[in-house]
Amino acid sequence: MQALWRSAEDALDYAIANEEEAASTYGEFSRQAPNEELKVLFERFAADETRHRDRLMSLKKGKTLKFSAKAMSDLSRQVAPGAATGKVTTVQAAYEFAVKAERDANRLYSILCEMATTQEIRRVFKALAEDEERHRVQIDGQLKKLKSEQGILTKLFNRTKKG
Questions:
Q1: In whole angstroms, what is the distance from residue 123 CA to residue 90 CA?
Q2: Residues of the chain below pLDDT 50
């Protein structure tokens, strides 16, 4: 675990940076997608992550975010899954990375929801957590489809085996 958050603003900056990274990563996945369906899926996720960032930035600008002092002192910062650049070289690896990133984002927003001191802020983080969980489910479903007998990963593997 990394160091504790020093403030609500520190936690918010961390979440904003993660959303920016996610939007960039999904944009790159979209550009490298092997088919139109995946390209559109990742483009949509990139746009969603950008909206999440904008929502978080408006919280920061409004200075309405407060966390309980106990929550700030008790909670360790989550470790982000890391940048995709240079680490994701296959379609399957991209999907596995995305599933982990979405799961981690859901956990982060669930934690921030619990830490928030107002219902309004809790609703924002709960909605963000739910969006991230929907993304994870969709990506996981796409990965299973790709791994199926008719999926592109299976076809690529079979072509490679045949030589």
A1: 36
A2: 1, 3, 79-86
- CB neighbour class for 25 (10 Å; exposed up to 12, middle 13-18, buried from 19): buried
Task: Name the residue range of residue 145's domain.
Answer: 2-162
CA 52, 7, 66, 63 dihedral sign is: negative
Q: Say how far apart CA 141 and CA 75 lie, in whole Å.
A: 32
Rounded Cα distance between 57 and 53, Å, is 6
Q: Residue 106 has what pLDDT?
A: 92
At 42 the pLDDT is 86
Q: How many CB atoms lie within 10 A of CB 123?
A: 12
State the total domains in the chain: 1
What pTM was computed for the model?
Answer: 0.73
